[in-house]
Amino acid sequence: MNEKAIRRSAQRKRCLLFSLAGVLSGVVNGLLGTGGGILTVFFLSKIYALEKIYSTKDVFAITLCSSLIMSAASLVFYLSEGFFDLSQGAPYMLAAIFGGAFGAFLLDRLNSKTMKVIFALLVVWAGISMVIKL
Amino acid sequence: MKILDVIVSFLASALAGTGVGGGGLLVIYLTLARGLGQLAAQGINLSFFISGATAAVPVHIKKRNIDFLAVIFIGAFGIVGAFIGLTLAKSISPSLLRKFFGIFLILCGLKSLKNV
Question: What three-state secondary structure class fits B94?
């Protein structure tokens, strides 16, 4: 097999793993309402484990971008089912625009180790709140 | 809109904007402090996350190394997964599943903390 074919085969395998990660993260998100992003971070960390191209911060950023697509689809479903009115969410959305941009700049300032600790604590917190259903 | 609403939204979205996720903080705040129903709170949390993430994404695209192939595949298949999850949620009670997943997350989080 020539180099091009090997590369293509690796790319195909990778796309398959991304698809699997997407479906499983989506199922968890749809079923439990949260936790999908955490799963995506875990999957991406494993998929990229052998390469040094993507840093921990890149993994968080990639997760955020794909979560945005997933969440937009969920939002359409929630609105079509009439679970809530968008006007109820408007004030929170406005505050989130500033918070979100601030968070993105924050990712640049924090070091990877701090990010990993924050993420691990958040995962434990999410787990506890799921078990005792806060 | 109370000042506390603004502060909670800002902090939760800053956390979400870094990509580590908001941990459902706003859902907990809305149900416990504001007395909203679970589904309404989740819906507001979704719209809130989307606007925060939309503000954060251009910054990430400019500054970070984004694997667009991963974004497209995970995002698109995530939509398929979300609809499977939502359909499942209608037929089975997710409460037991939530507890199992919660325990799984606690173990994963503790393992990650140990490895840092």
Answer: helix
Give the domain range for residue A9: 3-131
What is the predicted ipTM? 0.83
| pTM of the model as a whole | 0.83
Cβ contacts (< 8 Å) between B88 and chain A: which residues?
Answer: 27, 30-31
CB burial class (10 A; 0-12, 13-18, 19+) of residue B80? middle
In chain A, residues with a C-beta closer than 8 Å to the C-beta of B77 are 18-23, 26
pLDDT band of residue A47 (cuts 50, 70, 90) is very high
Tell me if A47 sits within 8 A of A17, measured CB to CB: yes
Residue type, B21: G
- How many domains does the structure of chain A reveal? 1
Q: Which of A71, A46, A45, A39 is nearest to A59 (CA)?
A: A45
